[in-house]
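Q&A log
Question type: sequence-to-structure
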Amino acid sequence: MKKIVLFMHTTLDGFVAGPNGEMNWINVDDEIFDEAAKVTDRSDTALYGRNTYGMMEGYWPTAADKPNASKHDIQHSKWYNSADKIVISKTMEGVQKPKTKVISHDLAQQIKKIKQGHGKDIVIFGSPSTCHSLMHDNLIDEYILTINPVLLGAGIPLFKGIEKLTKLKLVSSKVLKSAVVLAHYQNHS
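Response status: OK
Response body:
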């Protein structure tokens, strides 16, 4: 059975973006990219909301072809191009793209069916609204959070719409050179 693994940048006070979608507080460096690569190595499917999918689709398919492509750009571009994509969107209903499935209705049922399939895990990078929907239905199996040492006070929260107790077990944690804390939890609900 496939697992859904969330890899998300967050602030210490639990926001994934500022009030206007600002993400300039996120620390990204080779150490964080290496941690993200560990997640993609064990997954063959990416799950996105419409906005995040648009951003990813606008960059990753050709990121490795750029003359100044980093090691991460090359690795992630190769993974992105080989991965299946699931996009949660009502406005993209009926859109046909290679290796891409659009889910517009019955999210919980369709995700449960996909999780029953064979293959590697499903990873979510970003897509807070999609995460909120999946959390509401307790469909996220693992949370890998890069907790940045900043407080925003307001913005888009990571955790929203959870109506019942969700028990998580800490699998590992470490402080990265950038002072970002990498925390890996498994869902035990």
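Response note: Residues 4-187 form a domain with the Dihydrofolate Reductase, subunit A fold (CATH 3.40.430.10).
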